């Protein structure tokens, strides 16, 4: 069984989309393994999106991710990474088809409501970052570390 890291971003939390997003993953057949509401700090946001450090939108991306609470989740299932990415839809909501989360709930690439890991390796890295002992964050609600499966 594969795991993936999914996060409802601050605009998704502000707009009341946690329930709908969780529901879509449950109905698809995923198993929820971890969930917490948290406010992430800038170093964690920068580590999470480290691959985009040189991109012109990096500063704006970190501002956005730290602008409010996020809902961090671990979902498990067959081909969890690829199945989650297909539920989420294309990065740019303009291209995300209706029926996907971004196709239904987002307009702009800079605030596209949800994150999903892009590979099993990155999924485990992100699960450690957000659910491991050393996660540099203020937890509103917390759960035991999920680093060891
Ligand atoms: P994804 O989130 O689909 O994996 P990504 O890893 O390429 O997409 O980019 C990470 C996030 O960065 C993305 O969800 C939204 C933001 N982003 C990507 N391209 C952008 C752009 N051209 N302008 C502003 N934000 C962008
Ligand atoms: Mg990505």
From TrEMBL:
Entry coiled-coil feature ranges: none
Where is it mainly found? cytoplasm
Q: Name one GO molecular function term.
A: nucleoside diphosphate kinase activity
The record ties this protein, via Pfam families, to: NDK (PF00334)
Q: Where does ATP bind?
A: 9, 57, 85, 91, 102, 112
Quote the catalytic activity from the record: a 2'-deoxyribonucleoside 5'-diphosphate + ATP = a 2'-deoxyribonucleoside 5'-triphosphate + ADP; a ribonucleoside 5'-diphosphate + ATP = a ribonucleoside 5'-triphosphate + ADP
Q: What does this protein do?
A: Major role in the synthesis of nucleoside triphosphates other than ATP. The ATP gamma phosphate is transferred to the NDP beta phosphate via a ping-pong mechanism, using a phosphorylated active-site intermediate.
Q: Which family, according to UniProt?
A: Belongs to the NDK family.
Q: What is this protein called?
A: Nucleoside diphosphate kinase
């Amino acid at each position: 069984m594969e795991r993936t890291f999914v996060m409802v971003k601050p605009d998704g939390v502000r707009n009341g989309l946690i329930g709908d997003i969780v529901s879509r993953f449950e109905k698809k057949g995923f198993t929820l393994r971890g969930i917490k509401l948290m406010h992430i700090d800038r170093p964690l946001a920068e580590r999470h999106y480290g691959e985009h450090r040189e991109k012109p939108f990096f500063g704006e991306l970190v501002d956005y991710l730290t602008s409010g609470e996020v809902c961090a989740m671990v979902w498990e299932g067959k081909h969890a990474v690829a199945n989650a990415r297909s539920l989420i839809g294309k990065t740019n909501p303009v291209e995300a088809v209706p029926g996907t989360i971004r196709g239904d709930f987002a307009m702009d690439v800079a605030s596209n409501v949800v994150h999903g890991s892009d590979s099993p390796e990155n999924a485990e890295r992100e699960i450690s970052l957000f659910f491991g002992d050393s996660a540099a964050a203020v937890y509103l609600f917390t759960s035991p570390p999920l680093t060891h499966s």
